[in-house]
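Sample intake sheet
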Amino acid sequence: DESVIGTIFYVMENVEGRIYWGPLLPDQTPAQRSAIYDAMNETFARLHNLDWRALGLEDYGKPGNYVARQISRWTKQYKASETERIDEMEKLIAWLPEHLPEGPRDAIVHGDYRLDNMVLHPTEPRVVAVLDWELCTIGDPMADFTYHLMQWEMPGDGTGGGSAGSLMGADLAALGIPSKEEYTAWYLKRTGRADLPELDYYAAYNFFRLAGILQGIVGRIRDGTAASANAADNAGRVRPLAERGWEFARRAGAPG
């Protein structure tokens, strides 16, 4: 309502708490880390369990075909921003749309759910706010959850695509951080799902999606419109992400 202050605006709440930029939580004990991961999992499951129709969000997104639409969107962005040919990316562009999973019921999807996009209570292992909703829509919760699982699979040598870091190579048991399998079991129990079918496909899709997002940043560098001081770092991350995505596609049945 532009008549209120003369322009479009939104209201933010000031929430006091902690934000962690990496998944290893170095200042926490093993028990505290486990509790924080449990809280993060519970919050995500609660989001996906919300009845978006009852909340009046029927026109918030386009129900159905979420993964297909995402593949199309990020393929177009990748092609518009392409700066070098990456064979694995071309293979993913061809293979992913031909092997779409049978989509589960639609849910509210966050689009970038991770530890550094939430505020934890100042002293308790409790999520008091979730941030960065710009990719939120109505879509496939399995795509959303498996994107979240990428921190267990992200290359940990600086070739990953986000600030949230990687859990690969860490001694999770000693740290008190659940394994990917344990964390997935928590989520499945909370959402009432028996299993997570086609996990490898979703992993391939999410590495492809992240590669497409980062290539868009690289393209903006090329065009002189990238504002981030770290934007140039993304150029070296696209290929490793595409290669990792194709590894999962092959696990899911893609030809060698």
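Comment: The first strand starts at residue 107 and ends at 109. Helices lie at 30-49, 66-81, 87-95, 141-148, 172-175, 180-191, 199-223, 238-251.
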